[in-house]
Amino acid sequence: MNISKNLILNTVKMNYLPIIALVVLPVAQTYPEVATPPLYTIVGNYSEPATELTPNAVASKIQKEFNITMQGFEYEHLQWAYEKFADVKKRSKKFFTLTSGAVIQMRNHEQGYSYQASCRNHKPVSDQVGIYLHPHADKEKFQLTLIHELGHLIQICNDDIQAQYTNHIKALEQEGGITAYARNPGCASGTNNERSLRNEDYAEMITYYLSPNAKERDIVNCPPDNTIPYQNLASKYPQHLEVVKKVLDD
Amino acid sequence: MFNLNLKKYFFIAFILLTLIFVLSLIIIVQNSRKQTDRSKVEIPKASKNLETLPNFESKKDLENGNIEYAYASEDPYRDDLVITSGEKIVYERTLTVKDNQALPKLDEFTEEYGTPDQELFGPEYYGAPFKTYIYLSKGVAFVANSATLEVREIHRFTPTNLEDYLAKWGQDLSTTQQPDDHP
User: Does residue A92 sit at the B interface (CB-CB below 8 Å)?
Assistant: First the structure.
């Protein structure tokens, strides 16, 4: 009886295992996204609640894992930054090669301005911080602005081939800016020129390629389009999409 | 039989040699084309030919009586320029940007020209952290990203002093870095 039972089980295993594998594996592959773990699990001490972490500890984790220095931020903004970086890393490890060494300093601005001021620690302006970032109260806006400013750093502080400088300006000439802000950056500063159109479009391209679900945010006095720029990249801006893939895809 | 095999080998050898010859020819032609492309960015010999040079786009009379000739470059927003005074070329701006080619590095030029007479921030078209490295007595300047030290433009001009250079060719250059005013 036992022999025949084993025989039947083995036959079932032999005959149906490939079929089971064919069914189970694709289903398993449809759930690759793993939610970003909360910080206290990342630190490795499961008994320690997240709120007990000091801002310095989070900043130090960001520095260690992403090679980006964040100075002067409260705990909450650092956690938001960590979450965004962890999400970006799933899409592009190259992003952190291109931004490696960046120094981001918190600076409150009455109009909520953030800006990229210099390149890492390069000699002529080594006393300057790379990026000044406004601590927006809205999480998504803070995260999008963070990536936008690092997008400037990718464009300006890396070799032209790495940043795809020439291909980007050709894409811009052919397709125009990818967001309302990219098409009219003067809404924030009062002036549109070739430099601002080129630079803002580049930073927006990086931002929304790495934020596929985000709607365009508002920037200072600039009303956004009520669209999801990532979707527009594929449908309306194929050259931009090709450029950003070359810049960021691993 | 032996003769037939020998003929066969000679035929194969002939085909192979022909292929090698054709490939060599293609490589030589391609290299000479590259050199032709590069030579087009050098200062033309005579101003009368300026409108017939490759990529010529437009000619403009300037207020001071000079004539500006514009040529399409790889950057659709910034032309190569040649400016003449009478029959003489007094200024030339050449972009180094080429499709998917690495830009020259500043030290390739400083090795040849030495320390520049002046380093000024700008031009405005590029903004920070770009600088123009000027050799006044040699009549040459390089526009480079001071972070990556890649050279985007080469300027040639009649050798002059700083005051004259700034008035003629460096009006948007600055001794201090102007931060980008866009968030």
Answer: no
Angle between helices A139-157 and A75-91 (to 10 degrees): 60
Find chain B residues with C-beta within 8 A of A156's C-beta. 128-129, 145, 147
List the beta bridge partners of residue A165: none
Residue bearing tokens 């970006």: A88
Q: A126 touching B, CB under 8 A?
A: no
Say if the ipTM goes beyond 0.85: no
Chain A hits for B74, Cβ within 8 Å: 166
In this structure, which amino acid lies at residue B101?
Answer: Q
Measured distance CA(A15)–CA(B3) in Å, rounded? 63
pLDDT in tens, A38-79: 444 344 444 444 456 899 999 999 999 999 999 999 999 999
Residue A165 contacts B, CB cutoff 8 Å? yes
Contact B146 A117 (CB under 8 A): no
Say how many CA atoms lie within 13 Å of A5 toward its Cβ: 2
Half-sphere exposure of B82 (CA within 13 A, CB side): 28
Rounded Cα gap, residues A241 and B11, in angstroms: 52
Note the pTM of the prediction, 2 decimals: 0.77
Do B77 and A156 lie within an 8 Å CB cutoff? no
Whether A156 contacts A196, CB under 8 Å:
no
